[in-house]
Design brief:
Transmembrane segments (chain B): 7-27, 39-59, 71-91, 103-124, 136-156, 176-197
Largest interface: B-C, 63 and 86 residues
CATH architecture of the largest domain in chain A: 3-Layer(aba) Sandwich
Order of helices and strands of chain B: HHHHHHH
Number of domains of chain A: 2
Oligomer: heterotrimer
Keywords (chain B): Membrane, Transmembrane, Transmembrane helix
Chains: A alpha/beta, B mainly alpha, C alpha/beta
Transmembrane segments (chain A): 14-33, 250-268
Distance between the termini of chain A: 13 Å
Strand order of the largest sheet of chain A: 3-2-1-4-5-6
Largest sheet of chain B: none
Keywords (chain A): Membrane, Transmembrane, Transmembrane helix
Shape of chain B: extended
Radius of gyration of chain A: 22 Å
Number of helices of chain B: 7
Low-confidence stretches of chain A: none
Radius of gyration of chain B: 26 Å
Number of strands of chain B: 0
Shape of chain A: elongated
Strand content of chain B: under 5%
Mean pLDDT of chain A: 90
């Protein structure tokens, strides 16, 4: 059939156009699909819920603008939860752009909760060196961090001066798009110092983390935009995660359609010999 | 000497760093820390070498009016503006943050979003049931793609649980198997490098 | 040692550099805080060194001097009563020169090294070792030949990580051989790098490879250039090179992340033959779907040994295979241990 001959050589640009429409149309006409909560995401939520007030949570924003669409909504949702529980946030980043993105979320949400910089939260900015830096950090924060991201001496800030080593951190939450990132925190912080680690990764990286979830090295995991949407549901704060799920749903169905079409074409070609 | 000296350094530093993993004593951890700090220092210095290389190649392109030399002007201009904004105003300066939030962030997100289009074209081309293994892969991919979206839960409330099982059991088992192989390959390559059997990364005589 | 109503245990922190003492306690419910007090004499002045909350049961005191004796006691408080534990000590922080908790790791490393060295020795003695064909590596020379016939360049992408990454080292080893072939045939070789150190290393490797085959004139340092550290800016630059220069052969060998599919699909659209290799398990499916040949995980690390065909290097591959067989046996025994509760075997693999 001519249709199948045409489809077997379908111009990629038509595929791209259909994907673009599948993303844009649900944004204009929201479907408001309900989101189910999965175990790994619930584990993150339960872990933060279990922390006593005043506990220090180290948040590491290890991503760049390319992954901002997937990880920034998760960053906001988790910071929201931490401040709601009156936990103290110690933010840093293993990627240069990540610390700026994290800072945007931190300042925005801290304002809405009337949190004080230096006492309730602190941002020490980008720390280069990857695994090498993390090994030093866990042993003695003072070896690696002298000033915060604004250049203020760290010891002059109540929260900064109070965190001396990994033992002062109750939980590490890393928003990770690659390397250095979540695996470094697991290897060089959890394995060496026993600090529990929760993570949020891009959807592509999430399957790689399941062995660490099974073994308990990773306490909980938010995978991709769906993970962010689930967490927004748990903290009851609609954000970009929930808004993006409609588009993601339609695109997934479109991909399944493409796969089905490709296999129908294969069957047709085989029959034609 | 040109070949022997680097090999000696690789041998000594490599096995010493391995030993410090097992020796908790202060002299071991301090020296290990020092070596790691040296690496950080060297790495920071190399950033300048990359920037000089970038500038040199693009200035040369402009001077010789090679193909697309106009883009080199744009590149060098923005390189200068970002560097200048950062050095003069600091990382919190309005100019630097404006350029970061309105140029770098959207551009990076745009490039990442290309994946959505490329996944579609790759799926259409490559996910064909040509062999039994490819069919199995195809079925698993379809189940995971549907189960990962809210519509999957609406179709069948156990769909997400099925997806979690696929991710946590066969997927995890396969990943662990691949990781074991990778780690063994890494150990073998590391030993070849440490013992000087593998030298092609040095560019010298093998 | 266990003392009093609040059970207090103190000991030198195991497997450390003698800079801390571990204080653990067990107390009934009802306490609001625990004050940990320390002195250098059993009857001396005790000073408070830490205040623990209700849920805490362990404190690592790292403000101690090596070789000095210390005594501890705990005061548990709530709103209506105070309980003192008995004094525990003396305890002295001491240096450990070997981390016993990591002994299983050392044993595994020694066993693996011994196996690999054994096979290297056997290879040196002239024993012929069989290594299976790896299609991707067999295709390298053909792919370079294709580019030469078409009069188009070869593009080599060594990943986006720096030279401290083992995959980058493995990639550079393969680059050395690819550079030899391209220099021999006079085909242009582009190597855009994402890291400055990787650029320097690649330049050195390509130059030396060209010299080795007697073509030092072929080497052009501008073809091996630094692009940017930013992941997606780098991939957009490489995509631009592919679309402008139209290389006939693309190599993607090293560490890749999300950009893997962008590179592979763009390369596919230009009609290039593509050979990829990475040890990133989540990127392998993209390369398998979009490239003609893919080196899977450990094949990337084995590539240099395989391409050299030197008996000594091939010997290490055989040793690696035997190591894998050993791991499979350990996994099978481990599964049986869990089923039959052979705790001794399971406990051998607890690592701190």
């Amino acid at each position: 059939m001519r249709v199948f001959d045409y489809l077997s050589h379908l111009d990629r640009r038509i595929i791209f156009l259909l994907v673009a429409l599948a993303v844009v149309i649900p944004m204009l006409v929201p479907l408001n699909l309900p989101v189910d909560i999965t175990g790994p995401v619930k584990n993150v939520y339960d872990k933060i819920e279990s922390l006593p007030e005043g506990s220090v949570v180290l948040i590491s924003t290890d991503y760049d603008p390319g992954s901002e669409a997937e990880l920034y909504p998760a960053t906001e949702a988790i910071i929201e939860h931490c401040f709601r529980k009156n936990l103290r946030i110690y933010m840093m980043g293993l990627w240069p752009a990540g610390s700026e993105l994290g800072n945007m979320a931190l300042n925005k949400i801290a304002q809405s909760y009337n949190k004080k910089y230096g006492k309730d939260y602190i941002n020490v900015g980008y720390r280069p060196g990857g695994q090498v830096m993390l090994l030093s950090l866990g042993r003695n924060f003072g070896d690696v961090i002298k000033v915060d991201y604004q250049g203020i001496p760290i010891d002059s800030l109540p929260l900064g001066g109070g965190v001396k080593s990994a033992r002062d951190i109750s939980l590490v939450i890393t928003f990770s798009a690659g390397d250095p990132g979540i695996l470094h925190w697991i290897t060089y912080f959890h394995a060496r110092y026993g600090v529990p680690i929760c993570g949020a990764t891009t959807a592509i990286m999430a399957p790689q983390m399941y062995p660490y979830l099974s073994s308990g090295q990773l306490t909980g995991l938010l995978g991709g935009l769906k993970g962010a949407a689930e967490y927004e549901t748990l903290v009851d704060k609609k954000g970009r995660g929930l808004r993006g799920m409609d588009s993601q749903s339609i695109v997934h169905l479109l991909l399944v359609g493409f796969i089905a079409l490709g296999n129908v074409i294969l069957v047709y070609q085989r029959r034609r010999g | 000497m040109k070949t022997i000296l680097p090999l000696i350094i690789v041998f000594c530093c490599g096995f010493y760093m391995l030993a410090t993993f097992f020796i908790p004593a202060r002299f071991s951890q301090t020296s290990s820390q020092t070596l790691q700090n040296w690496y950080l220092g060297v790495m920071a210095f190399f950033v300048f070498i990359g920037i000089f290389n970038l500038i040199k190649i693009n200035v040369d392109k402009i001077q010789r009016k090679l193909r697309d030399w106009q883009y080199s002007i744009i590149l060098l201009t923005f390189l200068g503006v970002m560097l200048g904004a950062g050095f003069i105003g600091g990382r919190d300066s309005k100019v630097f943050l404006y350029l970061f939030e309105n140029f770098q962030v959207p551009l990076g997100a745009t490039m990442f979003s290309l994946l959505a289009f490329f996944v579609a074209s790759a799926s259409f081309r490559a996910f064909r049931a040509k062999t039994p293994e490819a069919t199995l892969l195809l079925i698993a991919a379809v189940i995971v793609m549907i189960g990962r979206i809210p519509i999957g839960y609406l179709i069948w409330h156990k769909f997400p649980d099925l997806v979690e099982w696929i991710m946590q059991v066969p997927n995890t088992a396969a990943k662990r198997g691949i990781l074991f192989g990778i780690d063994l390959g890494l150990i073998s390559m590391a030993l070849r490098v440490l013992l000087g059997i593998e030298r092609s990364y040095m560019g010298g005589e093998r | 040692m266990i003392v009093g109503q609040i059970e207090l245990r103190v000991c030198d922190t195991p497997n450390d550099d003698g800079s801390s003492i571990t204080v653990e306690w067990n107390a009934g419910p009802g306490y609001r805080i625990f004050e940990i007090l320390r002195s250098t004499e059993p009857d001396g002045d005790f000073e408070k060194v830490y205040e623990a909350g209700a849920g805490e049961t362990i404190f690592i005191d790292s403000d101690v001097k090596l070789g000095k004796n210390y005594f501890y006691k705990i005061v548990g408080r709530n709103d209506s009563f105070v309980t003192n534990s008995q004094v525990a000590g003396p305890v002295r922080p001491e240096v450990q020169y070997f981390n016993l908790a990591r002994l299983p790791v050392l044993v595994c490393i020694i066993v693996l090294f011994a196996i690999i060295i054994l096979y290297i020795t056997r290879a040196k003695s002239g024993e012929k070792l069989f290594v299976r064909k790896i299609p991707a590596l067999k295709a390298i020379e053909e792919a370079i030949g294709r580019a030469t016939e078409m009069g188009k360049p070869v593009l080599y992408v060594p990943g986006i990580m720096d030279i401290d990454d083992p995959q980058t080292i493995a990639s550079m080893s393969i680059l050395s051989r690819v550079a030899e072939k391209t220099a021999e045939y006079g085909t242009s070789l582009y190597v855009p790098t994402s890291k400055s150190m990787a650029m320097t290393m690649a330049q050195q490797i390509v130059k030396e490879s060209a010299t080795r085959v007697g073509r030092p004139d072929w080497y052009n340092p501008d073809n091996i250039r630094y692009i940017t550290d930013d992941q997606f800016a780098y991939v957009s630059a490489v995509d631009g090179i592919m679309l402008r220069e139209r290389p006939a052969t693309n190599f993607y060998l090293g560490t890749f992340y999300a950009e893997s599919l962008i590179l592979a699909e763009t390369g596919h659209s230009t009609g290039a033959i593509q050979i990829a290799g990475t040890a990133m398990p989540d990127q392998l499916p993209f390369f398998v779907a979009a490239c003609d040949f893919t080196l899977l995980g450990e094949e990337l690390y084995a590539a240099s040994a395989y391409l050299s065909q030197e008996p000594v290097q091939l010997g290490s591959l055989k040793g690696q295979d035997l190591g894998k067989l050993l791991f499979i046996s350990v996994i099978v025994i481990g599964v049986l241990s869990q089923i039959f509760n052979w705790h001794f075997f399971i406990n051998l693999f607890n690592i701190e």
